[in-house]
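Workshop exercise sheet. Pairs work together: one partner reads the sequence aloud, the other fills in the structure field after running the prediction. Swap roles for the next sheet.
Pair: D.N. / O.F.
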Amino acid sequence: MKVMNIVHDSVVDGEGLRTVIFFAGCPHFCKGCHNPKSWNIENGVDMSADEILCEIMNNELTDVTFSGGEPFYQAEEVKTLAKRVKEAGKNLWIYTGYTIEKIYESSNEHMVQLLSYADVLVDGPFVEKEKDLSLPFRGSCNQRIIRLS
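Structure field:
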């Protein structure tokens, strides 16, 4: 998997303390994106599921958030990590520029499987004209927080 960064103890990427995995690669190119370097998958560093899980488990008090870039851009690989995160008993939030409807309608079975491991999905692209910094855990008012389990 291509990873841009791993941040520990975040309080802005989901409820409670979270370890956030920022994946590289994004097809959305949202105007005003807070992380445009993440659009290019080649800007990421190769990490295995074992390496990422080890980093997560080094901070046992945190739950986990997948962000980006776009986690669903690497869905085939990321779903394996998501499964292991859930097996470790962690709560998992996933941020995506796709809507949940687009994921379910997708012909990409890996995207649907990745979604099945999420406890919470924050969906929709960042829309600069709908930017609202007062919203918890999202940047624009079109984005939704969807509790899945």
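Discussion prompt: Residues 2-147 form a domain with the TIM Barrel fold (CATH 3.20.20.70). What would you look at next?
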